[in-house]
Amino acid sequence: MTRGTGIPATLSFVLKGDKVLLLKKSKGLFGEEKWNVPGGKIRPGENPENGAIRETLEETGLRVKNLEQVGLVHFYKNMRRDVPEWTGYVFVSREFSGTLTEGREGILKWFSIHDLPFDDMWEDDQYWSRLVFERKKFEAWFYYSGEFEKLIDHRIKRIDSGNNSQTIEARQPR
Q1: Of residues 141, 46, 32, the one with CA closest to residue 85
Q2: Which of 69, 79, 158, 163 has the fewest other C-beta atoms within 10 Å?
Q3: Alpha carbon distance 139, 89 (integer Å)
Q4: What is the per-residue DSSP string for 50-109?
Q5: Which residues are paired to 90 by β-bridges?
Q6: Phi, psi of 96, deg, nearest 5
Q7: 51 or 26: which carries more pLDDT confidence?
Q8: If one looks up domain 7-171 in CATH, what number appears?
Q9: Is pTM beyond 0.85 here?
Q10: Long-range contact set of residues 115-123: C-beta below 8 Å, sequence gap at least 24
Q11: Domain extents for the chain?
């Protein structure tokens, strides 16, 4: 996976059986009122994995272990296609310790991976979440109008263990 540009961030899929932990962002925060996995900005000098561990702990009270990076997702706004606003390093973990604790970030809830609240999530999640649950490595590009108001189009590339890639989806949403 290529190293992204834009604001580096993490997205941490914490799994328990066939459930994933989602956070509904509080009003006033980026992504307010949307369900999303824990995550956030990577600090200067911090590597993506440590950023994922820290952000998940801060937002959930859980300390994730044995993270596996499965994806890299680039998010563009204002119909730009040259430099992404955000680049998210996507991790998955089935091992964690601690007590689930809600904070100022929002409310936490376990959802079945087969019944996610896509109507209340970022529009792009419906196109790539399944790859995380299948532990498929991928890189994706999502292009939004305005300040991430409407998904215009996207491209998703699967990456196999030999770093060979194959575009699996490239289309405009309906």
Answers
A1: 141
A2: 163
A3: 9
A4: HHHHHHHHHHHSEEEES-EEEEEEEEE-TT--SS-SEEEEEEEESEEEE----BTTEEEE
A5: 11, 71
A6: -160, 160
A7: 51
A8: 3.90.79.10
A9: yes
A10: 116/20, 116/22, 116/35, 117/22, 117/35, 120/24, 120/33, 120/34, 120/35, 121/22, 121/34, 121/35, 121/36, 122/31, 122/34, 122/36, 122/148, 123/150, 123/151, 123/173
A11: 7-171
Q: Give the separation between CA 65 and CA 40, rounded to whole angstroms.
A: 17
The two tokens of residue 80 are: 């730009």
Tally of residues, the chain: 174
Q: Which tens digit of pLDDT belongs to each residue from 26-49?
A: 887 787 889 999 999 999 999 999
Alpha carbon distance 119, 127 (integer Å): 13
Of 104, 126, 84, 114, nearest in space to 20 by CA:
114
Q: Which amino acid is at 12?
A: S
Contact 11, 31 (CB under 8 A): no
